[in-house]
Structure formats: C-alpha cells, structure tokens
Inverse folding.
C-alpha cells in the first residue's frame, strides 16, 4: 500500500512544485519507488511524454526527480490558457476541447473521475505518491467543483502539508486564514504547515511559530530557507519578478 503525501499552498507561487520535487528526490534517494501526481494543472508551459502526449512541465520535473519517465497519469487534466477567458482542455495527454471557465467547471465531475482513475493506477506502482495541489484550498467559490485540492486529498487519503510564502509577508495570516476557510470536514487532512522562502535568522521567527501553534491545531513542521533555483515557473504569479528592469 502506497504512502501518500500532498503539498498544498496558501496561494499560487508559494513553492508547491519545487518542494514536491525535492521530496520526490529525497524519497528516491532513500530507496523508495516514488511517483508524482497533480490531478489538474493550469500552465502555458507543457511538455511531451515519450509517447507524444502532453502534460504539465512541473510533473515532468518531478518525474525526473523520481528517476522515472513522465507519464500523463501524473497530470491527467491540463488546462492551457488561450486568451479571451478560454483554455484548451487536455485530458490524459490529448486535446479534448477549448472551453470557458464556466464550461470547464460544468465538466468537473467527469474530470474528477478521470483524475481518480489515473491516481488509482499510479498507486499500484509506487511505495510513495507525492501529490501537489493548485492555487489554494481556501478559494471557497471553487470548493464545490474542486478536483485538485481537498477533495482529491480526501479521495487519496493523503496527509496534507500546507505551504506559506513568508517572502511575500503575512505568512501567519495566510496560513491561519487558509485553515479557517477549508471546509470543516477536510481540516483533519492537514498534518503540518511549512513556512517557505525564509531569509535571515530563524530564531527571530520562533516566537511567532510558538504563538501560532497555540491558536491553530496544526503544527508548523519546518522553515525552508530562500534559495535561488534555476527551474521553470508555471505560475504567472512568479513571472513579473523575473522580468529584467
């Protein structure tokens, strides 16, 4: 039976993809069979599997971290923005249609079925599945049609780690606000919180972590230091910071 861990975030660009890739490599180096999984990705940057099928580049990087070839089961649903409020919908590596956001959400249950089938298939081949969420599970307007955050975590029986980006400021508010807005039935899936992109003396952060642990029943398990990494970004949230002045 596979062990399942999932990285979700307080928003886009907080470091979910990189931390998931790092955990994939850590587990691989310890001798486990590891596979990545993200049920739905939205990205302009896609890649092609050896079979000629299309999937998100983040999961291709994560597959490389696992020492395996990319497989569309790792990212069964891919949305590629096409402008004018529409996206190309790619299911299991093949283009299905071009649809508006409203049209896409009407397909959520069918897409969730595809995602669950892909996950179930991968699970039979691995000791660990390292999952990634998208955006934030606190987007309450999207929870009913969610196929990538808490509903997927519930189906997979995953232990969820919530990542906050301290470099943008307000990390404790982001973490607590996200916890508060997650549906009550899903809050028990959260097993830990991670503070990412920290610069400076971590001892200055420790009093805040202590107070935070007194008001939120999910512990802060770690602080990850800032690192400049030469990895492609999929989130538009990160693009402006990389434009030369």
């Amino acid at each position: 039976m596979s062990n399942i861990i999932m990285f979700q975030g307080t928003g886009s660009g907080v470091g979910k993809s990189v931390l998931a890739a790092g955990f994939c490599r850590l587990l691989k180096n310890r001798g486990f069979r590891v596979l990545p999984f993200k049920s739905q990705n939205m990205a302009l940057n896609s890649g092609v599997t050896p079979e000629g099928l299309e999937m998100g580049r983040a999961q291709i990087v994560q597959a490389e971290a696992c020492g395996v070839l990319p497989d569309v089961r790792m990212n069964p649903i891919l949305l590629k923005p096409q402008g004018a409020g529409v996206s190309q919908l790619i299911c299991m590596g093949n283009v299905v249609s071009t649809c508006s956001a409203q049209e896409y959400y009407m397909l959520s249950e069918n897409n969730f079925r595809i995602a669950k089938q892909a996950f179930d298939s991968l699970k039979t081949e691995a000791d660990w599945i390292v999952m990634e969420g998208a955006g934030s599970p606190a987007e309450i307007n999207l929870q009913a049609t969610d196929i990538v955050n808490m509903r997927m975590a519930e189906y997979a029986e995953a232990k969820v780690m919530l990542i906050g980006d301290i470099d943008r400021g307000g990390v404790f508010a982001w973490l607590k606000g996200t916890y508060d807005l997650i549906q009550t039935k899903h809050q028990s899936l959260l097993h830990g919180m991670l503070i990412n992109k920290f610069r400076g003396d971590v001892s200055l952060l420790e009093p805040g972590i202590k107070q935070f642990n007194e008001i939120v029943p999910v512990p802060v398990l770690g602080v990850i230091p800032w690192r400049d990494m030469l990895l492609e970004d999929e989130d538009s949230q990160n693009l402006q910071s990389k434009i030369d002045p």
